[in-house]
Amino acid sequence: MLAEHSEIVLCFPPMKRTFALRTSVLMLLALSSVVHAKEKVASPTLIVVNQGDHDISVIDPAAGRQIATVDVGGITGHEAVVSPDGRTVYVPVYGDSGVGRAGTDGNRMVAIDLASRKITGTLQFDHGVRPHCVRYNSHDGLLYLTTELDQTITLVDPHTLKIVGTIPTGQPQSHMFVLSPDGRFGYTANVGAGTVSVLDIVARNKLAIIPISTNTQRISISNDGRMVFTADQTKPRLAVIDSTNNGIKTWIALPSIGYGTTPTPDGRWLLVALRTNHQIAVVNLKTLSVARTLDVPAIPTEILVRPDGRVAYISCSGKAQVAVIDLNSWKLEDLIDVGKGADGLAWGY
Fold it and tell me: In the predicted model, what is the mean pLDDT of the chain?
């Protein structure tokens, strides 16, 4: 390859100069096209769902800044997922209230094209269902959407935005949902019921209901699929469910009431949002105990770990910011300004 400032000297006989010049121009244009093509290659993108602004933030994580916002239709969305090709963000439109509270009942999910930053499709229900958490199942290529008021998980074809099935949860307020790594089982945190529903994804039925507390929030699963975690909202503790027998394996004591949780890709740690303490607890998954805590801005809600496992992003709804934590040094690396009520996070390309 030529150095950036290399000088090209063309020496041709007079009769061939015109042809040679044209050839050289074409070569330079081709090189320019390659350079521009490289510039247009998609880069990693962080999506933040802002409840208070009824939109999503599109974040350039390398630059550490918001580069765009997209309205989701004037009503609040809470969660999102990005398609495997990185082109589309799916946002359920929940309504204008919190779980179990009076307010409007959302009845749709929108598909947003990241390139044009416009809504390009809508799944419309014929009644209010309060759609909340959406997950992509790589094993069957479907979207799994919690539809709270119907006490179901709704299965959606992401290409047509058509409903292709439902799975009953058997409980009210099935708010958050997680899939097992093999895509065979699903688990919902049923907030006001204080339970976890265990679902057979293949047979599309409910297998079990596990009592946790009088109120529980958020849910995650270990990388090997053996442990499921949900946070008791009445005591500072985390329930650890054994997925082999669908019973509570143990409890993890926390410094304060927990909320969103997520494991790191290496399987060593579980990160837990402590909303009242404005901290993240780091749980050692071998000892099932808290190893350290990290201070973050007010009301940490959801945690997303970058695929390479080096960085965690935490939506902090009390400060309209996303905290960036270096998972090697366990230090707060950056704060990214986003919208009001920052909540759901998703990673795309």
Answer: 90
Mean pLDDT throughout 267-273? Answer: 98
pLDDT value for 42: 57
- 130 neighbors 149 (Cβ within 8 angstroms): yes
Burial 76-94 (b: 16+ CB within 10 A, else e): bbbbbbbbeebbbbbbbbb
- Domains annotated for the chain, with CATH where assigned, are 43-348 (2.130.10.10)
Structure token pair of residue 106: 């959302």
Q: 17-58 pLDDT, tens per residue?
A: 444 444 443 444 444 433 333 333 357 999 999 999 999 999
Rounded Cα gap, residues 324 and 306, in angstroms: 10
Name residues whose C-beta falls within 8 Å of residue 129's C-beta, 6 or more positions apart in sequence.
Answer: 105, 106, 107, 147, 148, 149, 150, 154
Flag whether pLDDT at 330 surpasses 60: yes
Listed in sequence order, the residues at least 6 apart from 191 whose beta carbon sits closer than 8 Å to its beta carbon are 99, 100, 173, 175, 215, 216, 217, 233
Task: Please give the structure tokens belonging to residue 318.
Answer: 């009390």
163-182 in b/e form (b: 16+ CB < 10 A) is: eeeebebbbbbbbbbbbbee
The residues pairing with 179 across neighbouring beta strands, listed in sequence order, are: 186
Q: Which helix (H) or strand (E) holds 29?
A: helix 17-39
Sign of CA dihedral 124, 125, 131, 136: negative
| 71-91 pLDDT, tens digit each | 998 789 999 999 999 999 999
Beta bridge partner(s), residue 74:
none
Q: Give the span between the Cα atoms of 224 and 161, in whole angstroms.
A: 31
What distances in angstroms separate CA 306 from CA 52, 312, 327, one per listed residue? 25, 6, 10
DSSP string, 168-190: E-SSS-EEEEEE-TTSSEEEEEE
281 closest CA partner among 336, 222, 238, 341: 238
Inter-residue contact 111 to 98 (CB < 8 Å): no
**Overall size of the chain counted in residues:** 349
Mark out the alpha helices in 74-228 (DSSP H runs): none
